[in-house]
TrEMBL record:
Top-level lineage group: Bacteria
Record region (Disordered): 481-503
Lineage: Bacteria, Bacillati, Actinomycetota, Actinomycetes, Streptosporangiales
Protein name as annotated: Uncharacterized protein
Length: 946
């Protein structure tokens, strides 16, 4: 039996066993197991003991590294190796990296020869230095750097990969959670292919720093929130404080009326005096200070540990503790039957902690058990105190402004211990509250003189202490400070504001999330800026494209059977179905999921009602899976799941996928709404039939196919001859092999072919300029081209819209599309060799060369300004290029202007061409001029103008 494995490999003469609860089971038919199932491959007549041991080792491997690790061909002992059946997602780098993480560097020999492992991870251009750097990363457990380097090997050279492999992530922070290296590699190619090669490394390194900063912030937020109780005590505290307020009011009524048992009428006639309002202000002020102290202490303990965090917080706790006398602390801690055991005011816990610290007791487990519960309710206290401040201000502003202006508790001791969270010189107050409280006084920032101590000018009426409370709560949630929410009413600040940014703005929560978000923008029509120096500049340039704004507009024509299921539970799962209603819905999904569901092809189908885009949410409201649902033909037959994927295009849970597919298959199809006609009535006159919507494949396919066949016959022999030398295969297999190469793989293959003399640079340049599909599109009827404005996308990089994918699968078009695609990529490989100053280019220019080739490569090196030895062949701010015959850079009909499109195909940003000419002049690598200088080189090129 021949077993087809992942990657298209066929294992002949070997047999496969899979793990089952009853023990190893031999596969007699590949259809007996799901695609991608891990198997143990071994000899047919292997002893039962060896089979059992191999399957046991396979199960351990899969348990530790996932099913993907089995695809690495790990030695299982007894002549067995792991493998996966055909149909698995990802490529060999995913399998090798997963297996390497499982077996460790000491067990790397189980994966086969070292060279094979390195090629799987980094491609055929891998060097010994890269291998050594990878070994160090694996030994030190820097798997995120290894993950990123493996993915980036398609867009970076070996020396650049060494820089990536040397990266270190912050301790305890994973920068690459979720997503396989192969998926990340595809996203990186899409994002960086239009960026000049020298800038790619800088962008990846900057991305690493930005994601590390973000992930560190998220880890800090998680650690701070972990100091708080998982149980929400806010409602309990509200009841406790309300009871305490009621008791206090009744006590005040009895004192004022001098009556221990006042009647209801007496209470109704009672009016609170000035002392009552003053006491309410003082209580809520002291509570806010105490809650702030608890919050800051909880954050310090999370950041620095219990002992160091408490030592740092001791001045804050002491300052807050002075605002609550002993009798008030005892009253606040008094238990009330039926209500929460927490004290009614946070100052009681602040005093407890300050007293324990002053006692100097050892900070052992007993001390920790005393401290942590008192910090665990800091958030709950803060939330109820913030509410109380708003309630007091609402009761007093406008009715008791004179009392507010008279109230002036001292802040001196608090500021000595706590300092300032916000710069007082920038504090304008909270206008609706501080205005009545300050009266004729100006806001704090205007009262302060440059050399004045803020504590001597600040008053309680400035309410900076209230902002400190909300800021401390915001820091517990990982923010630098709370964000103002002007015009929204109290609390006037948001302690946990949502991330800013439009839909589709790439997230920095992980490397995969950031790159997939940027790739989504490219797929929607975003174009990288000319020379981005940072990741932020790159994504800002992509977001500025008009196509992005257009992609976020428009509602979907959701088919009625799918619309009726919106919000329905998926049987047999804990998930609920949500149907996307607009482009913004799927933009939000794509932003979180890191997939292409907001791409033009999916959105176009959904807008026309030809498909439904769905999200599956778990009980916590978290998006788990995206799916595309399309109608069977005819539509009355029902529905099917066309595509389904988890986050970052990972495979969803097998059981979940199977149940969802079965459920969708059982959904009713679309039913045409027809009204019955009365028998005595004449049939209505049928309206004129509307013209069918244009069908690209049916209308363009025949005409384009005929034109392609003519162009193919003229171009194919010469093009395939040169390209097969690069692929190292026969002409029939060259295009398939070259399309599978990543960027560095293809660049290495081009360099080797030129170095070994399998082809020459002029021949390869000429072959890569033969584009049968482009020629056929140029010859296509202009009326057809005008009707289908998507056709120019055929001359760009994948992915293509769905209709164009169908078009290029036509037998008459498929090979021509592959040739055009490979030719463009070969051009980019040549450009990369040139800006690296690879010796194969210099040796090629020592022989007769071609004028278009020389002009294009000269423009490429001038624009890229690589860090190599460059020589000016034309002075700055001059357009005349020396040599015979003489040429000028600005001549529209001259060779330099004609070479600009070819230079762009080399991966060059020609927008900076004239800036570089003005500053440096036309420059080429010094190595190109080794045989007679520029004049001789130009002469050799002019004699051969192809």
């Amino acid at each position: 039996m021949k077993i087809r494995l992942s990657g298209g490999v066929v294992a002949s003469g070997r047999h496969a066993w899979i793990a089952r609860p009853s023990g190893p089971r031999r596969l007699l038919d590949q259809a007996d197991a799901r695609p991608g199932t891990p198997v143990a491959l071994g000899p047919e007549r292997a002893p039962a003991g060896d089979v059992a041991n191999a399957v046991r080792e396979l199960s351990l491997l899969v348990a530790d590294g996932g099913a993907v690790a089995a695809g690495a061909g790990v030695d299982l002992g007894g002549g067995f190796r792991s493998a996966r059946l055909d149909g698995a997602r990802g490529d060999q780098r995913d399998a090798v990296l997963a297996a390497l993480r499982t077996v460790g560097l000491h067990g790397a020999d189980r994966l086969g020869e070292r060279a094979g492992v390195l090629v799987a991870l980094f491609g055929p251009a891998v060097t010994r230095r890269v291998g050594a750097a990878a070994a160090r990363a694996a030994e030190e457990g820097r798997w995120a750097a290894l993950h990123l380097a493996s993915a980036a090997s398609d867009v970076l050279g070996p020396e650049q990969l060494e820089r990536v492999l040397a990266l270190e992530a912050p301790e305890g922070v994973d920068l690459t959670p979720g997503g396989s290296p192969s998926v990340l590699a595809g996203y990186l190619r899409r994002v960086l292919e239009q960026v000049s090669p020298p800038r790619r490394l800088a962008l990846i390194l900057d991305l690493w720093e930005r994601v590390a900063e973000r992930r560190t912030g998220l880890a800090r937020r998680d650690a701070r929130l972990a100091t708080q109780s998982r149980r929400d005590r806010v409602a309990d505290l509200r009841k406790r404080r309300r009871h305490d307020d009621d008791e206090h009011i009744l006590w005040q009524v009895r004192i004022d009326l001098e009556n221990e048992q006042p009647s209801l009428a007496d209470i109704a006639r009672w009016t609170p005096g000035r002392w009552y309002w003053h006491e309410r202000l003082q209580r809520v002020f002291a509570d806010a200070i105490a809650a702030t102290a608890l919050l800051r202490t909880a954050a310090a303990v999370a950041d620095h540990g219990l002992e160091d965090g408490l030592e740092r917080s001791a001045p804050v706790l002491r300052a807050a503790a002075t605002l609550m006398p002993d009798w008030a602390a005892g009253k606040a801690a008094r238990r009330v039957p039926g209500l929460t055991g927490l004290p009614v005011r946070p100052g009681a816990y602040v005093r407890d902690l300050a007293r324990r610290l002053a006692a100097g007791k050892p900070m052992d487990a007993k001390f920790a058990a005393y401290t942590r519960p008192r910090l665990a309710c800091a958030r709950d206290f803060a939330l109820v105190v913030i509410e109380d401040v708003g309630r007091v201000m609402g009761d007093m502003v406008g009715t008791h402004d004179d009392l507010l202006r008279e109230w002036s508790p001292s802040l001196q001791s608090w500021r000595e211990g706590a300092g300032y969270g916000r710069p007082p010189a920038e504090w304008d107050g909270i206008a609706p509250w501080t205005g009545p409280m300050l009266g004729d006084l100006e806001p704090l920032r205007r009262r302060l003189t440059p050399d004045q101590d803020p504590a001597t000018a600040e008053t309680a009426a400035d309410l900076l202490w209230y902002a400190d409370l909300v800021d401390a709560l915001a820091r517990l949630y990982g923010h630098e400070r709370a964000q103002p929410t002007p015009g929204t009413g109290d609390p006037w600040f948001d302690h946990d504001p949502p991330p800013a940014g439009e839909p589709l703005t790439p997230r920095l929560d992980s490397v995969m999330g950031a790159v997939s978000g940027a790739a989504q923008l490219v797929a929607l029509g975003g174009v990288p800026p000319g020379a981005p120096r940072t990741w932020a500049a790159l994504t800002a340039g992509l977001m500025s494209a008009t196509a992005i704004a257009e992609a976020l507009t428009g509602d979907f024509a959701v088919p009625a059977p799918l619309a009726a299921l919106d919000g329905a539970a998926v049987p047999g799962t804990p998930l609920r179905l949500k149907i996307a209603r607009s482009a913004r819905d799927v933009a939000g999904w794509a932003d979180y999921m890191g997939n292409c569901i907001a791409g033009p092809a999916y959105v176009e189908e959904a807008r026309e009602g030809r498909s439904g885009l769905a999200g599956l949410y778990d009980a916590d409201g978290l998006l788990v899976v995206n799916a595309e649902l399309v109608a069977l033909r005819p539509a009355s037959r029902g529905w099917r799941v066309a595509e389904i994927a988890a986050r970052f295009n990972d495979a969803p849970d097998e059981a979940l996928e199977q149940r969802f597919r079965e459920w969708v298959a059982a959904l009713p199809g679309a039913v045409r709404d027809e009204t019955e006609q009365a028998p005595d009535e004449l049939p209505p006159v049928r309206p004129a039939r509307r013209r069918a919507a244009p069908r690209l494949v049916e209308e363009v396919g025949p005409a384009l196919g005929e034109l392609v066949l003519r162009s193919w016959a003229q171009a194919a022999p010469e093009a395939l001859g040169a390209l097969s030398a690069v692929a190292g295969t026969g002409p029939d297999a060259a295009l398939v092999r070259l399309r599978r190469f990543g960027g560095p793989q293809l660049t290495g293959a081009v360099g080797r072919a030129l170095d070994e003399g399998a082809t020459d640079l002029v021949r390869l340049w000429t072959a890569s300029g033969l584009r049968p599909l482009r020629s056929a599109l140029d010859a296509l009827d202009p009326a057809l081209r005008g009707r289908f404005d998507q056709l120019p996308l055929l001359l760009g990089e994948p992915p293509l819209p769905k209709t164009l994918r169908r078009l290029v699968k036509l037998p008459a078009v498929a090979d021509a599309y592959s040739l055009d695609l490979v030719a463009r990529r070969v051009r980019r490989a040549i450009g990369l060799l040139a800006v690296r100053d690879d010796p194969v280019i210099a040796r090629a220019f020592a022989k007769p060369t071609a004028e278009p080739l020389l002009c294009a490569l000269s423009i490429a090196t001038t624009c890229a300004a690589p860090d190599i030895r460059l020589v000016s062949v034309a002075p700055p701010r001059t357009t005349s290029v020396p040599g015979y015959p003489a040429t000028t850079l600005e001549d529209e009909e001259g060779p330099w202007q004609r070479a600009l499109p070819a230079a762009r195909e080399l991966g060059t940003d020609t927008a900076v061409f004239w800036d570089e000419i003005a500053e440096h002049g036309l420059r080429v690598p010094e190595s190109w001029l080794a045989h007679g200088g520029w004049a001789a080189l130009w002469s050799r090129a002019h004699t051969h103008r192809r």
